[in-house]
Give the backbone structure.
Amino acid sequence: MISIVIPTFNEVQNIIPLIKNLIVLISDFEYEIIVVDDDSPDGTSEEVNKYMKLNNRIKLITRIGRSGLSSAIKEGLIFSQGKYILVLDGDGQHHPSFVIDMINVIKKKKSDIVIGSRFLNTSKLEGLSNKRTLGSNISNKLARISLHRNYSKLTDYLSGCFCLDREKTKKFIRKIEINGFKFLYELLALSKGDLEVNEVPLIFKERRFGNSKLDIAIVWDFLVSIIHNLIFRLLPRRAISFGLVGISGVFVQLFIFSFLVEILLFDFYRALPFAIVSAATSNFLINNQVTFRSERLKNSALYIGLFKFLIVASLPVIANIGITTAFYRYITADTFIAQIAGIAIVYAWNYLASASFVWKKSI
Ligand code: GDD
Ligand code: MN
């Protein structure tokens, strides 16, 4: 039995034509088609529901209060029953004609994963803008260096279209982190080169109706995951994201400071507090959009959050001086190492205190 999992969000006009195409292609197999819809406001679930009455191999999971492409895929996979499971986008961008190729390859070549690749020589890439193609190229290169070398010949680590052997992949699937779009990348990272992976060429079409849901937060989430893997998954993803935002704050502070001093002719002592508070505010706002996106603060909670964040961030200034001095005095007389130690401890404090005090929920 083949299970086909299709994640959807606002694909009301795309989903039924896609299902119809698929049914024609796979009618020789025993199959089930599972749509995982996040309660799309455009009525995608209702549309699928109507169609289910005509064909009982079509199943629908409508999730209320949960969202995200990777998490939808994970839920669909866990719900499915087939020996082989195929995942593809619900907007019709993955031309269904290769579905049979993928199923054949996974059966014959004894692959554990078959990826529908947009970047093989024989693939046809019609639906990616130049900007997206460039972004995908860079992302694929980063993915390659961060994954096990057994996977270095692959060409599309971020494809949304792949076929899995359930038994071989199920222990990894359980562990996949569910934020963002990077389901396949995560699966490859967790399996550490142990799976047999092959690719077949894909035809990637233009989207017919609606818009892509890929946004800057998805890209950020992916970059954080790359770093997460490069450092052997030692730090939590959120701590990495928080650290990157902190680095951006350094630049904000330097920029505001020199703007105030050079252009507005402030003196050092007047400029410094402005620059520091601007950098902290910028850190807070960016963290609110990316690092703590799922607990994002809005309206009045945003101002209260900013106030708390400024308090949290101001405490370690004193601690930093103390720790750096202590390190210098008692542990090493190297000023550089002493400063790095101070920064590391302040960073850990800021992250832990922000996560539990400003954005509360989990750390
Ligand atoms: N259930 C659910 N929840 N489905 C979602 C969500 C979500 O939060 N976000 C997106 N989807 C569904 C869309 O409805 C679509 O069927 C599919 O996931 C892909 O989303 P698109 O928004 O169309 O993505 P894209 O075309 O920009 O991105 C493609 O390329 C990426 C790599 O560059 C996709 O193939 C991605 O899977 C791929 O990672
Ligand atoms: Mn798409």
Summary: Residues 2-230 form a domain with the Spore Coat Polysaccharide Biosynthesis Protein SpsA; Chain A fold (CATH 3.90.550.10).
